[in-house]
Design brief:
seven-stranded mixed β-sheet, globular, single chain, Glutaredoxin, alpha/beta
């Protein structure tokens, strides 16, 4: 028997029925046809959070592609997974990347993280961005937008960034349309999806050692 769902956090969550409205309002605010993403339009999201009720959830995601390091990737259910749609020229993507990187390290394998890069001009450029920011989890390089077809008919990301949380069965249970409002927002969504409680923050390493005297 599936576990009962928690009551929605009204102050930060939008009902799933509002998802089309959220996406439409973002598109009307200023669509931009991104080079290399075919007919899909992407605009900055507004940070709206949506959790899907059990009866509104779609079948498990089937996702595969080539990563920014040139390796083949196929999504395998079994662990709660955070999927982040991004590219290196997206301001909100850049702003939230340190939090995603820190959380990926803090969960220490108890939660999987995956990026989908949808616009960088080359995989090498995307990978250079990841190296500069210490991103160690994989990202599928999909400038043609093909990787996003895995979400067609369920959550179809149409803004950058978009972050989706998948449960252990690979089912999308929630998303953030736009920049993630806070670390707590994401850790709550992970826990609601069946993942572990929020981990303690990973301490930042000092930029340099200051010599005595």
């Amino acid at each position: 028997m599936p576990a009962s769902l928690r009551a929605p956090r009204a102050l930060r969550l939008l009902p799933a029925l509002l998802l089309p409205t959220v996406l439409l309002s973002g598109l009307l605010a200023g669509c931009s046809d991104l080079t290399g993403t075919g007919d899909l339009d992407y605009v900055p999201g507004n940070g709206g959070v949506v959790e899907f009720a059990q009866e509104d959830r779609q079948p498990p995601v089937e996702l595969s592609g080539e990563t920014t390091t040139g390796e083949d990737y196929t999504f395998s259910p079994g662990t709660v997974t955070v999927v982040n749609v991004w590219w290196s020229g997206c301001g909100p993507c850049i702003k939230e990347m340190p939090m995603l990187t820190e959380l990926a390290a803090a969960y220490d394998g108890d939660v999987d993280f995956l990026g989908i890069n949808i616009r960088d001009t080359s995989a090498a450029n995307a990978r250079s961005f990841e190296r500069d920011r210490g991103v160690e989890y994989p990202s599928i390089y999909a400038p043609d937008g093909d990787a996003l077809l895995a979400f067609t008919g369920r959550t179809s990301p149409r803004s950058t960034p978009t972050t989706l949380v998948l449960d252990e069965d690979g089912v999308v249970v929630s998303l953030v349309n736009g920049e993630i409002p806070s670390r707590t927002t994401l850790t709550d969504l992970v826990e609601d999806a069946g993942g572990p409680p929020a981990p303690a923050p990973v301490p930042s390493a000092p930029d340099e050692e200051v010599a005595d005297g």
